[in-house]
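step 4 of 6: structure.
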Amino acid sequence: MTQRITILAGGMGGARFCLGVRHLLMGSDTEITVVGNTGDDIWVHGLRVCPDLDSIMYTLGGGISSERGWGREAETFHAKEELAAYGVEPTWFGLGDRDIATHLVRTTSLNAGYSLSDVTEALCHRWQPGVRLIPMSDDRAETHVIVDDPDAGDAEQPLRVAIHFQEWWIRHRASLPAHGFSIVGIEDARPAPGVIDAIAGADTVILSPSNPVVSIGTILAVPGIRDALHATTAPIVGLSPIIGGAPVRGMADACLAAIGVPTTAAGVAEHYGARSAGGILDAWLVDTVDASATAEIEGLGIACAAVPLLMTSPDATARMAAEALRLAGPRVR
Ligand code: FO1
């Protein structure tokens, strides 16, 4: 009987986690479906860029730049330099020459009327990620960050504006205090084909250790996805992206602060909530350094275990994934 694993994933951390799950389940009769965050997507120089889908596709397909965690290995940035020479904004966005080919194929296909799901499937024919990668939605839903406009207004009366997540993340390194997030278009976004089935029909649903706000949170904001998680008979297990009070990589702390959630393993578990209390978690893995939090988390109605959560290698990540599947337990038939 084929085992079906469905993973909700964002960018770098999510991609690395998926690599470990695939490593663990290689050769077994398992279908892995990865539902990727598309809230980070952006139109840049006329091209549609899907950072989290591409990070997952490149990481699992062997084309990722391992030192950056995004974009292609052996990359050059001549087109970016030429665009800057023309003074064309955004000069802050690192558009790699190899990476541009992916965005050209995607943009041409979207303009021809294909859906983002169609395009992602076509791109994956080349990369063979070994999982089924589907976007959370085929509809445009872009994360914007509410900040005090750094380019205008005096300190007394700062002008509050929404800037695209990528500008906040790349140009400002998330250094501008975020007063909140707005996912433009989310109200009208529908789960992409296969997303609801992948959740309803899973034997286990895993929340990867991605950014709980702008990656997992964005996927959960797509109308219908949270309901599907509440309804599935599959156990839902998450892995904490926060270890010892800090994110392993990225800037999840800046995002959590913006929504008033403590940057702790327990804080994120409470934020997701126990499914028995209307949330989405049945189980939560924390790192060994946060072992003292397991009792508090179990008090929330969430099964909890403390295991090493640093994804230092596919083997290490595979061990984390095995612990997650063990803690989640079998599907409730
Ligand atoms: N991240 C950066 O820190 N600097 C960049 O210039 C940059 C460019 C970029 C281009 C394509 C792509 O797919 C991702 C890119 N990223 C860059 C990463 C991206 O901003 C983040 O990975 C996600 O949006 C957050 O997970």
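step 5 of 6: annotate
 - The pocket of FO1 is lined by residues 10-12, 40, 49, 51-52, 54-55, 70-71, 93-94, 99, 166, 169-170 (CB under 6 Å).
 - The radius of gyration is 19 Å.
step 6 of 6: archive
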